Amino acid sequence: MSSLTNGRVLLPVDVTHPTKDLTERLEQILPLKGVKAHLLTVREELPSYESLLATVADFPEDLPHTFETKAKKVLNTIAEALLQRGVEVSQEIVSGPAAGMIEKVAKDESFLFTALAPGRHSSVELFFLGSTTLRVAKHCPGMVLVLRNSQDTGALDTVVFGLDGSDNAKKAMIEAIKTFKLGERGVKLVLCSVAFVPTALTFVSPVEFIAAIESNANLAAETILADAEKTACDQGVKQENIELMMRHGDPSNELLQAAKARRAGLLVIGAQGHSGVEHFFLGSVAQRAVMHAPCPVAVVRS
């Protein structure tokens, strides 16, 4: 296992919208042999609503106990599927705001790998997805794997990496190769770098300089890809399993298009730390990937 997992995976489960094929989706990407999975569900406290329910005749007085009883049934079903695959399973039910409690458990119990599958929600709820899945992707330490529905439900055979020349993007690639054992599994790596020239820059630059700016952006992308290819080979990936892809345009849109074009089973993006500025930039690439990618997304924070 990579340094990010150490064999331990936090699996938050929305028992009100359970993902029936959660185990299958996870196994598609992460080899489960030797994994220790911790199933976590959060009972969101709604004091005013619970007080109202208490006035209804024949309604159970102990709402938390009722919730836990039903939640355990859902968790036990998932646990059984994991146990059949040789996974060591533990369970925990906590109370509080969902995203905040997932983040707290991840940090307090030193989980560096969190995997979750967004349930089926209305379009309005999807708008507020940022309060749970998106916040987890922003704040949880290490790697967050968002198990979105994939356009290809077969075995993992193609992974797209977004590379921008930063150390974090490079480390994200290395961690993903190790964690998902991509070299041993013979998975194809599509290393994608986007030659991006901000519109504002071309707007204020003299015409004679725009071509030079674009040329420099292309050269930078080529350098990034060459370095990433060497790094991937150093991690045990065969060169014939590596594709270098340069695209032009908005980075977030181009990465999504690359994942779609290659029918990727996973998109990997490096995220920054916890400052407000870094979260702003997370929103421009990783946030859009988490919300709109046609496949599962791994957001990796060093």
What does this structure look like?
The chain is an alpha/beta fold. It has 2 domains: 1-147, Rossmann fold; 148-302, 3-Layer(aba) Sandwich (Rossmann fold). 46% of the residues lie in helices and 20% in strands. The protein has helices at 22-29, 47-54, 63-83, 98-108, 123-127, 133-139, 167-179, 182-185, 199-204, 207-234, 251-261, 276-284, 286-292, and strands at residues 8-12, 36-43, 88-95, 113-116, 143-146, 158-162, 188-195, 242-248, 266-271, 297-301. A 7-stranded mixed sheet has the order 4-5-10-9-6-7-8, with helices on both faces. A 3-stranded parallel sheet has the order 1-2-3. Helix 1 links the parallel strand 1 (8-12) and strand 2 (36-43). Helix 4 (98-108) runs parallel beside helix 6 (133-139) and helix 6 runs antiparallel to helix 13 (286-292). The longest helix is centred in the C-terminal third of the chain and has 28 residues, at 207-234. The protein is globular, with a radius of gyration of 21 Å. The chain starts with 7 loop residues before the first strand and ends with a strand.
Brief account:
With 302 residues, the chain is of the alpha/beta class. The chain has 13 helices and 10 strands.
Provide keyphrases for this structure:
alpha/beta; three-stranded parallel β-sheet; single chain; 302 residues; Rossmann fold; 2 domains; 46% helix
How do the helices and strands line up, and which of them pair or pack?
Blueprint: E1 8-12, H1 22-29, E2 36-43, H2 47-54, H3 63-83, E3 88-95, H4 98-108, E4 113-116, H5 123-127, H6 133-139, E5 143-146, E6 158-162, H7 167-179, H8 182-185, E7 188-195, H9 199-204, H10 207-234, E8 242-248, H11 251-261, E9 266-271, H12 276-284, H13 286-292, E10 297-301
Parallel strand pairs: 1-2, 2-3, 4-5, 6-7, 6-9, 7-8, 9-10
Antiparallel strand pairs: 5-10
